[in-house]
Amino acid sequence: MSRLRLHRESHLVQRIGWLRAAVLGANDGIVSTASLIVGVAAAAATREDVLIAGAAGLVAGAMSMAAGEYVSVSSQADAERADLAREHKELSDHAESEWEELAQIYVERGVDLDLARRVAAQLMEKDALSAHARDELGISEILAARPAQAALTSALTFAAGAGLPLLAVWISPRDLVVPVVSAASLGFLALLGAIGARAGGAAILRATARVMVWGALALALTASVGKIFGMAV
Fold it and tell me: Where are the domains of the chain?
């Protein structure tokens, strides 16, 4: 009889925590900073004014992303801890009912009742709280909230994304800032969409088109606002 070989598998869902924050941060960095730059440049501002506005947007945006991610993911972590605390109490006060509840979860997934009860008993004997957290509450180590990781990832990727339109301003001719930054930013967004789709196992063309459409819309709106207010001033 041939011996079965066990092998480690790397699943894309393991990346979901940092990947979501990274893509969101970089995308927001490119779109918001490029839109700010295009809006200011369309108002006939000097290159120095545009660079100052862009740099200020980079710092403010990175801090805003970090704070927003930390607060929102911390709220998720607080909710997870509260659910685990309640489940721990239920396991202490009503162990048999919790065992039957876990078994019924397996039955609903297609396991025979007798086998489901045996599996539930074995899992609860090893680590009852982990079994209920995973199969009843949907809380796992892979998907658990990590506020610091999300905040740091978002801030760093926002700054990296925001730095790209600033670089485009720096190298573009003085009278071509708006078209150069717009074209470069859409190119950066297309590349980001492709990278994010590749890392997450999604369709590259769809992800690329999605970020480019929203980026183009943001650039067009802010350019229009800058043009209108520039003429009014």
Answer: 12-232
